[in-house]
């Protein structure tokens, strides 16, 4: 996938490959990220392997899209970015992004999010993208705002994390 939509200055986005199993296994099973993923049990390698093998990499068929975020200089997988809850009738989807701990703070999330938005709006012609972010996750709120998302709602006590409920800000970006 060497299209301009997926190629950035430092990164490119690509489809999942079987070789990504170990990285996805480590990322999905990190309990520190479960508060933002709505999952609270580990994934097996078997389930993740099936997910990779069964993905058609077609958002209209799968109703979701997962792309691997890969650094161009050395092909290191720095994270994943997704469009989930795809609703073709309403021309919208929800964005999720995860950058591996050792790669955070390098601007990779912002570049990957810009690439995904360019693809979603410029090629898929989606009308809107949304994101749910805990109000205390200021870094992520600022990330989405820096990429053209704006706050459009507050969901009180939306996520139950660590024995307490957290408020979540709803962010939205409309195609210009």
Q: Can you list the strand order of the major beta sheet?
A: 1-2-3-4-5-7-6
- Shape descriptor reads globular
Strand content: 25-35%
Order of helices and strands: EHHHHEEEHEHEE
Number of strands: 7
Structural class by secondary-structure content = alpha+beta
For the biggest sheet, the summary is: 7 strands, mixed
Percent in helix: 25-40%
Low-confidence spans: none
Mean pLDDT: 90
Count of DSSP H/I helices: 6
The end-to-end span amounts to 25 Å
Rg from alpha-carbon coordinates: 16 Å
Briefly characterize the structure.
This protein is α+β, with helices and mostly antiparallel strands. It has six helices and seven strands; from the N terminus they run βααααβββαβαββ. The two termini are 25 Å apart.
Task: Break the fold down into its secondary structure elements and pairings.
Elements: E1 11-14, H1 21-28, H2 34-37, H3 45-54, H4 59-62, E2 65-71, E3 77-87, E4 92-99, H5 108-122, E5 128-134, H6 138-146, E6 150-161, E7 164-174
Parallel strand pairs: 4-5
Antiparallel strand pairs: 1-2, 2-3, 3-4, 5-7, 6-7
Describe the structure.
The model has no long low-confidence stretch (mean pLDDT 90). The chain is globular. The two termini are 25 Å apart. 28% of the residues lie in helices and 34% in strands. The chain has 6 helices and 7 strands. The chain has a 7-stranded mixed beta sheet. By secondary structure, the chain is α+β, with helices and mostly antiparallel strands. Helix 1 crosses helix 3.
């Amino acid at each position: 996938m060497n299209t301009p939509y997926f190629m950035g200055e430092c990164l490119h986005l690509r489809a999942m490959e079987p070789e990504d199993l170990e990285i996805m296994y480590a990322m999905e099973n990190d309990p520190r990220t479960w508060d933002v993923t709505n999952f609270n049990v580990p994934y097996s390698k078997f389930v993740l392997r099936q997910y990779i093998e069964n993905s058609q990499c077609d958002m209209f068929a799968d109703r979701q899209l997962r792309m691997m975020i890969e650094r161009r200089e050395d092909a290191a997988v720095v994270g994943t970015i997704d469009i989930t809850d795809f609703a073709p009738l309403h021309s919208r989807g929800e964005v999720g992004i995860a950058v591996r701990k050792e790669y955070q703070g390098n601007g990779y999330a912002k570049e990957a999010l810009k690439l995904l938005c360019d693809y979603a709006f410029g090629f898929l012609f989606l009308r809107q993208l949304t994101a749910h972010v805990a109000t205390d996750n200021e870094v992520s709120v600022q990330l989405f705002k820096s990429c053209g998302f704006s706050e459009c709602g507050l969901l009180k006590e939306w996520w139950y994390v660590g024995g307490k409920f957290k408020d979540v800000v709803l962010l939205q970006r409309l195609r210009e």
